[in-house]
Amino acid sequence: MQTERFPLSPPSLEELADKLNGHLAANYQHVTLSVVQCPDLRQAPFYLAAAGLSGNERIADIGGQPNLFPIPRLNTIWNLEDIAKAMDMDSAKGGIIGAGAGPFHQVGQNCELMPNISWEDGIETIDNQTWLARMDDKTGAVSVERSPSLDCALMINLYGSSGAPGPVLKITAQRRKGPEESFTECIQKGLAAAWGDTRTVSLGGAFIVKSGRARYHVMPDFPPDEKLPFESRKQLNDWLTYHDFDSPMVCLSVLHSADPAQKMGLRMEHTHCFAPAGQNRGGHYHGDVDGYGEDIAYEGYFNTAKVLYRIERPAVTLKGDLHD
């Protein structure tokens, strides 16, 4: 796999908490940022495959939106085990979470993927607890199910670690009062404000939408050839389907303060979510729904990456592919 490796110099979690506090406090009425020992994320309410977010921390951006727009590149299919090897993950023990596009070639249609895997006795013993969300094009109903394999496609953003317990940044936010509807975009903008383009700070982790209602999109199946290529962002947005789901929701996130040297074509924030009890609620997170900002509450656990990988980077950027 074509892989570019960039070492990072993350700040301490204490500095991170201090830098982010002001930006989050401007957007939410109640905010706390603290460094804590990570709870066992295998337990309720997260139900992740790995216990923690520590050890061998790294982030990867694989493929990208140019593999979907303006014309889907259906040959861009990968396997999470192969990606883990490209990320130099510990072959004995590890875990990966994130957000991406699912194995359309196996489930029969385009879909959203919530990668959630771990291994403890060698990478060939992966425990695959990955979910996917897809939409019935006839009824508009969203269904959420276990992924049938370790395959993914088109674009995917991943946080990997040894899955060990350890210190993490805990963020809670409640009752939005500012204009930023997305919890993770608010964090990302706080990172960008604190470090600008001078330093890339990359985070991965999981959070719960504890209360309130949030909006998610689910990609429908690929358009027929006669409706391609996508020619504008409006056409893209009209193609996506949007759904408002109640809490609780488990959300898996990867985000960055900046693109190193503005040359990697990174996606600055990517979050996919699923209902913890396996109900048919899931997709790409956008933020709280208008009118529900006062009800919204989040609790999240994040860690910094020490290495950033850009894998199978498309030759053409999305900016060059689409015009408004």
Automatic annotation (TrEMBL):
It comes from the Eukaryota. Residues 19-311 form the DUF1907 domain. It is found in: Nucleus. One of its GO terms (cellular component) is nucleus. Keywords: Hydrolase, Metal-binding, Nucleus, Zinc. The keyword Metal-binding applies. InterPro entries: C11orf54_DUF1907. GO terms for molecular function: hydrolase activity, acting on ester bonds; zinc ion binding. The keyword Hydrolase applies. CDD domains: DUF1907. Signal peptide: none annotated. SMART domains: DUF1907. PANTHER family: ESTER HYDROLASE C11ORF54, PTD012 PROTEIN. Monomer. This is DUF1907 domain-containing protein. It comes from Neocucurbitaria cava.
